[in-house]
Amino acid sequence: MGAWFCALTCPTPPSQMFEPKSCTYTYLLGDRESREAILIDPVLETAPRDAQLVKELGLRLLYAGQCGGRTPGFEGRGGWGLGILRPFCVFLDLALLSLPVNTHCHADHITGSGVLRSLLPGCQSVISRLSGAQADLHIEDGDSIHFGRFALETRASPGHTPGCVTFVLNDHSMAFTGDALLIRGCGRTDFQQGCAKTLYHSVHEKIFTLPGDCLIYPAHDYHGLTVSTVEEERTLNPRLTLSCEEFVKVMDNLNLPKPQQIDFAVPANMRCGIQTPPS
Predict the structure, then answer these.
(1) How many CB atoms lie within 10 A of CB 70?
(2) Whole-angstrom distance, CA of residue 251 vs CA of residue 185
(3) 15-63+91-253: CATH superfamily
(4) The whole model's pTM is what?
(5) pLDDT of the chain along its 279 residues, tens only?
(6) Rounded to whole angstroms, how far apart are CA atoms 214 and 16?
(7) Burial annotation 229-248 (CB, 10 A radius, 16+ → b, else e)
(8) What long-range pairs does 232-238 form, CB within 8 A, spacing at least 24?
(9) What residues does the Metallo-beta-lactamase domain cover (predicted)?
(10) How many angstroms separate the Cα of 165 from the Cα of each of 30, 35, 80, 101, 201?
(11) Are 56 and 86 contacting, i.e. CB atoms less than 8 angstroms apart?
(12) What is the number of H-type helices and E-type strands within the chain?
């Protein structure tokens, strides 16, 4: 599974936990001293895998689901020596308390937040208040999720859905962009109250304003790619390098099929982390 620890300056970006049916990435971050951890965008079918990893690493999961924080407000930057514990999970000097958080109300899979609340007692589900979904904790633009010495800043990035958020590590070294910004692409805007113009402004104002070397970790990838940077996407993303008017025209003419799981995934995810685990 790879080396157990890699310094932040490691030339190889971390890998992510992958769910193949919906091509979803799940990310695990933690603080080594407190053992507190956060799980971003867990998937129902792979929740037992995620829970087992949390236990193996001696972590305590605080939140699962849409990223939200215990304490509003953004911690200042710090030289905390973030590290990667292993491929398939991203860790920040690692910790024991774990928390599942979702970047938005997904349409292509059911969140694993509910099952994780059962498998890991004490962890809470988190999602944006603007998603309209149920959760233990609701977050808004500017809130921070704290785990040990680290924090994720919540940046509202609507457009794919009204409740989409991007989670930015407090030192601005990495951002978890959900479906708002994908590698050389972006989330669709033709369902769930999506809006192409809103998405364009969200990415340009909330993500592309981060440092160019900030790592971009999306919620999905369909081409085997795992990580990008703000500078790469600012200059190479074929959709988001267009003008706003051109972008809207492209997004309005994608003619994509409906996600296969949307009819049961969205209703379940509206009860994010609250739904009854399957028997």
Answers:
(1) 17
(2) 11
(3) Ribonuclease Z/Hydroxyacylglutathione hydrolase-like (3.60.15.10)
(4) 0.82
(5) 322 223 333 323 334 799 998 899 999 998 888 888 899 999 989 999 999 999 998 889 888 864 332 222 223 223 233 333 333 344 444 333 455 677 667 666 688 788 888 899 888 888 899 988 888 889 999 999 998 888 999 999 999 999 999 999 999 999 999 999 999 999 999 988 999 999 999 999 999 999 999 999 999 999 999 999 999 999 999 999 999 999 999 999 999 888 777 676 777 767 764 555 445
(6) 17
(7) bbebbbeebebbeeeeeebb
(8) 233/181, 233/183, 233/184, 233/207, 233/208, 234/208, 236/184, 237/181, 237/184, 237/185, 237/186, 238/184, 238/185
(9) 23-220
(10) 20, 25, 24, 11, 13
(11) no
(12) 6, 17
Q: How many CB atoms lie within 10 A of CB 212?
A: 12
Cβ-based burial of 261 (10 A; exposed 0-12, middle 13-18, buried ≥19): middle
Domain boundaries, the chain: 15-63+91-253
Decide if 102 contacts 127 (C-beta within 8 A): yes
Cβ neighbors of 156 (< 8 A, separation 6 or more) are 128, 130, 140, 141, 164, 165, 202, 206
The CA distance from 211 to 168, in Å, is 11
CB atoms within 10 A of CB 140: 14
The label of the residue with tokens 């193996």 reads: 56
98: which strand partners?
Answer: 62
CB 139 within 8 A of CB 107: no
Supply angle C-alpha 180, 17, 91, rounded to 5.
Answer: 90
